[in-house]
Amino acid sequence: MDNVSLAAATAIFGAGIAVALASIGSIVGIGYSGRAAAGVLSEDPSKFGSLFLLVVLPGTQGFYGFVAAFLIIGKISQVVSLDQGLQLFFAALPIALTGLASGIHQGKVCAAGVGLVAKQATQVMKGVIFAAMVETYAVLGLLITFFLINSIQF
Asked: Could you tell me the residue range of the domain that residue 123 belongs to?
C-alpha cells in the first residue's frame, strides 16, 4: 500500500469512527428514553405527542457523526500525504467522542424528563431544556470537528 492509499484509508477510518461512536451514543440514548416512554405510554397513550421529542432527541448525535463523515469524505480526494490522513482522522475525534458521551447522557436526561411528563404532562419543555443542555456539547464537538477539517492544508 502506498502512502496516498494509507493516508486515504486513515481518513476513511476517521470518518467511520465519527459515524460509529456518535451513532452508538444515539442508539444507547434513544434506548433509555424509549424504554421510559414506553412505560408511561402503557398507562397513558395520550402522552405520545409530549414524549416523542424526548425520545428522539438523543438521536441527533448520530446525525452529527454523519455530517462529520461527509465532510471528511469530501476531502479524501485531496489527501496526498499520511500527515493529511492523520489530521482528518484526528479531526473526527471531537464529534466521535462527544457524540458517544452526550448521546448516552442525553438519553438519561430525556428518560428523567419522561418521568416528569408522567407526573406533570404540562412540564415537557422543562425536560427538553435540560436535555438540550447536554446537546450543546455534541454541537460543540461537531463545530470543532468542522474547524479542524477546514484548517487542514491540502
From this structure: 3-151
65-104 per-residue burial string, b: 16 or more CB within 10 A, e: under 16: bbbbbebbeebbeebeebebbbbbbebbbbbbbbbbbbbb
Confidence band of 4 (pLDDT split at 50, 70, 90): confident
Cell digits of residue 95: 464529534
Give the C-alpha separation, 48 to 53, whole Å.
Answer: 9
**Nine-digit cell at 104?**
448516552
Assign residue 28 the CATH number of its domain. Answer: 1.20.120.610
Question: How many domains does the chain contain in total?
Answer: 1
Q: State if pTM tops 0.90.
A: yes
Cell of 87: 489530521
pLDDT for the residue numbered 3:
82
For the chain, give the longest Cα–Cα distance. 62
How many residues make up the chain in this entry?
Answer: 154
pLDDT digits (tens, 9 = 90+) for 19-59: 999 999 999 999 999 999 999 999 999 999 999 999 999 99
Q: Do 18 and 92 touch, CB atoms closer than 8 A? A: yes
